[in-house]
């Protein structure tokens, strides 16, 4: 290496060495970039696979069963349903997961695959009710707080009450369109609701003097507090505001086979 006029020059015999080092350095950079790109791609694929797996996991699962598979024509044929909740707490209608309303979409098929028509429908009422919240009346339905990973077990006593099954082999499946809601209202104890109504009337009474009204109001508030404390361990019904419905998840059970001898 020779220095002339403060410029750096490379001796001709060293040029091949420097070219080799330059090529090796560039090759190393390319390999590093390729390795990094491969790792990024692998990470993206893993993330995508994880998201796909999460989206494919059902909100809840239905497991349909019966105590045995062979029955006589006159025997009761009970259907047992296990609803297995997934990873999330859900606010759902009470009738869908805690009454025979869960069985309203039973499908029975004969050996030839034809759907057997029911002689009467499996029905369950789901009445609406106005529930007080923050002094306002809110149209709601009876709700159920379905905790994550919880199991809900239900039994339909006898499917032959709804389907006339002649001797033969049948398959049975069940579907539920599970509605999900965003919020719930806990209805107060009936005694407390009555006291609150009396308290509201008292507050609007123009004939009572201020001191007497305040004494009466204090009495009602003390009674409300007493009842709340007395019933603090009592489980109260919850209600789902109709307007808070988020949507519904279609669930389908496994298929079971029954033989009527």
Question: What is the compact description of this entry?
Answer:
With 261 residues, this protein is an alpha+beta fold.
Q: What is the CATH class name of the largest domain?
A: Mainly Beta
- Percent strand: 25-35%
What is the CATH architecture annotation of the largest domain? Sandwich
> Helical element count?
4
Question: Percentage of helical residues?
Answer: 25-40%
Number of domains: 3
The biggest sheet amounts to: 5 strands, mixed
Q: Tell me how many strands there are.
A: 15
Folded structure, characterized:
The protein is α+β, with helices and mostly antiparallel strands. It folds into 3 domains: 2-55; 58-187 and 239-260, Immunoglobulin-like (Sandwich), CATH 2.60.40.2970; 188-236, Up-down Bundle (Methane Monooxygenase Hydroxylase, Chain G, domain 1). 32% of the residues lie in helices and 33% in strands. It contains 4 helices and 15 strands. Helix 3 packs antiparallel against helix 4 (210-230). The protein is elongated, with a radius of gyration of 35 Å. Mean pLDDT is 81; it is low at 1-8 and 46-55.
